[in-house]
Task: structure prediction
Amino acid sequence: MPDVVLQARGLAKAFVAPAGRLPVLVDISIEVCAGESVSIRGSSGSGKTTLLQQLGGLDEPDAGTVGVFAHGGGMVPPRKTLGRGIGFVFQNYQLMPELTALENVALAARIAGVDAGPAESAARELLAQVGLIDRLRHLPSRLSGGECQRVAIARALVNKPSVILADEPTGNLDERTGVEIMNLLLGVVAERGAALVLVTHSREFAERATRRFVLSGGVLSPA
Ligand SMILES: Nc1ncnc2c1ncn2[C@@H]1O[C@H](COP(=O)(O)OP(=O)(O)OP(=O)(O)O)[C@@H](O)[C@H]1O
Ligand SMILES: [Mg+2]
Result:
């Protein structure tokens, strides 16, 4: 039996807009297993970021449930994994501008309860893995877009999450850097048996995932 590490059932989410209620997610159910990558495409405004936010516990759905596998704890709601079960790569990096690359990554480990020394060591190791060992002390403003994205990916991986949620991680990058980022993410899935949910506008990158979906009209359909 495959190890399900992310499970969403009957997710629904609507926003209240001046023109009335705006249903964005209508009825979303999905299961993702360890070692699996799932891609989600959909037009701008179709609700991809909204979906990832519900899956990652950054927002509460109006209806439905989300479970994430937490080591030692079984399936728990995403907020109960305390920053360890899920690694989130945001659409626009969301790095702390006043912190260096090293501090940005170490902070995520500190928030998950790791002591300062081991947090810095783990951050250094991850940044080396993404090819930024000579950029540790750079502020985000002194990094290129691709480098910021690699810091954001290192931050998402530092607590060895069982689930990686990546929101257009290649959206702002040139083609070659985009391919490098994709190789990095799929490499982590292969090496660590993590599960990846990848939101992308790129058909080419979407096709590299083991399963592919399109989000339209608030529901997910196989692509
Ligand atoms: N907090 C909010 N309040 C009201 N409406 C919102 C809110 N967040 C998102 N929306 C609306 O929900 C819809 C889906 O937004 P979302 O950001 O999930 O789209 P997306 O598929 O990620 O788009 P893109 O490809 O441009 O990133 C949009 O129409 C947006 O205007
Ligand atoms: Mg989005």
